[in-house]
Amino acid sequence: MDILVINCGSSSLKYQLIDMEGEKVLAKGLVERIGIEGSRIKHEPINAEKVVIEEPIQDHKKALKMVVEAIVSKEHGVIESMNQITAVGHRVVHGGEDFSKSVIITDKVMEALEKNIELAPLHNPPNITGIEACKAIMPDVPMVAVFDTAFHQTIPEENYIYAIPYEYYEKYKIRRYGFHGTSHKYVAFRTAEILGRDLKDLNIVTCHLGNGASITAIKSGVSIDTSMGFTPLEGLAMGTRSGNIDPAIIPFLMKKENMSCDEVNDVLNKESGVLGVSGISSDFRDLEDEAAKGNKRAQLALNLFANRVKKYIAAYIAELGRVDAIVFTAGVGENSPLIRKMVCDGLNFIGVSIDNELNDVKGKERIISSEDSKVKVLIVPTNEELMIARETMELVK
Ligand code: ADP
Description:
By secondary structure, the protein is α/β, with parallel strands linked by helices. It has helices at residues 60-72, 107-115, 124-137, 157-160, 166-172, 181-195, 249-256, 261-270, 273-278, 284-292, 296-320, 330-335, 337-345, 356-359, 384-396; strands spanning 2-8, 13-19, 24-32, 40-45, 51-54, 85-92, 103-104, 143-147, 203-209, 213-219, 222-226, 325-329, 366-367, 376-379. The chain has two domains: 2-147, Nucleotidyltransferase, domain 5 (2-Layer Sandwich); 197-384, 2-Layer Sandwich (Nucleotidyltransferase, domain 5), CATH 3.30.420.40. The protein has an eight-stranded mixed β-sheet with strand order 5-4-3-2-1-6-8-7, sandwiched between helices. The protein is globular. It starts with a strand and ends with a helix. Residues 210-212, 239, 282-285, 288, 330-332, 335-336, 362 line the site of adenosine-5'-diphosphate (ADP).
């Protein structure tokens, strides 16, 4: 069974074709600059050289047509015909309160997705465009929507309701939704496999630390709290996002700097986080290099980031009552021994101890806690595409 996984952004489209027998990636790639000058597709087939095809790609339908052509092409294709694609799994950012699981896409589902645009005005429209483009090109292939928010629909009320007038929840559905759900779920499953334990018996804190970053408390395989909220702006300091700040800063800034709502929203989403603090970069590699050379603000950004990760982990351990494993994933979590060490050294008091040699690694799945650590600490590279393909297969089987 070959499953095509699609992750559609406003001007980009990422794809993977996965043979579910052995869960092998047959091809993957990226269409960039859709509708913008300089559009191209980068296609990486298994067992052959990567190809880049540059040509005008005016919309997502054309992009998808090129993806399918690349996958079945004589020169760099991996299957003979489009008919071999059993199903398509789409990443959808926001399922609101309508979806607590992945679903087969029907007209009713499309209506619900449209309704949820209000909650994710930047992300859901391109996701919907991707689904529509796929339907136009492969009308008979079943499609599944896998939501970033679905895994967190198990969070109890006291953790998802904000302490503002309850009517705003009733009127506008303002509540914590949480994001990166597919990633948190995947690494939790994988952690249970690595530890040879039943996920039902484990309490896990998963740390997805990428450009966007979130932490989740998982009890018996179920999300009970997560750091992102109504939008992906809440929680940790991130590459360019502020994460938690005193909400009173917003009207203060609007008055002092004469900013509009949209302007202040842009500052908090695009100019804040470790970029805003350091004034250097949102990329942790740059910050680590600069901090090593003695740049104080780069060091401050790293300290602030690691400290907030540590505080969330400790808070979530308190919520869980006990923790069996702490898991690091995504760009920074997988690749930065320094950040992992800064975070874990701060958790020595609850018996977390990492082995510095084991921690000295990038992008490898491994246990990095020391023999005597009371809590297992792991690096588990995330694989959202595989998780989407698995959920798609389950539903269409
Ligand atoms: P997203 O998917 O949210 O865009 P990723 O999970 O790909 O982000 O993470 C990207 C971030 O990972 C980069 O901004 C960079 O800071 C960080 N990163 C990647 N490699 C390294 C590394 N070797 N050391 C430290 N940070 C790294």
